[in-house]
Amino acid sequence: MKKLMLLVAGGVGYVLGTRAGRERYEQIKKAATRVKEDPRVQEKAHQAADLAKDKAPVVKDKVASAASTAADKVTPSGNGDHRSDLEEQLHPDSTARQDDPYPQGNLP
User: pLDDT tens-digit profile of 39-53?
Assistant: First the structure.
């Protein structure tokens, strides 16, 4: 009996909620559309996009510099010459490179 009452109450709540929810959704959607199409909002959006385009090269340089600084500070445990190890692994004649890193041999 409790399960039946719970299902009925849930069904009634769902039906009433979806009706009120759809109307409220439409109100919110109309308000958002009005704001989006407002010329003042459009102008500010264009200003923000132009500012982002102007500052992109500066941000790129700062990020590259920070990444380089961070990479220089990182040292692996073990030997201290991590950079030359990486260069060796990436060298075209290195034995560390494989022609096929995912061989199609017998799988377990």
Answer: 998 998 899 999 989
What pLDDT digit, counting tens, does each position of 6-17 carry?
877 877 777 777
Q: Are 97 and 89 within 8 A, CB to CB?
A: yes
Kindly list the distances between the CA atom of residue 54 and the CA atoms of 61, 65, 68, 76, 91, in Å, as whole numbers in the listed order. Answer: 13, 19, 23, 38, 38
Mean pLDDT of 8-30: 75
Residue 56 contacts residue 63 (beta carbons within 8 Å): no
Q: In 3-state terms, what secondary structure has residue 88?
A: helix
Domain boundaries, the chain: 2-66
Q: What one-letter code names the amino acid at 47?
A: Q
Is residue 41 a contact partner of residue 35, using CB atoms and an 8 Å limit? yes
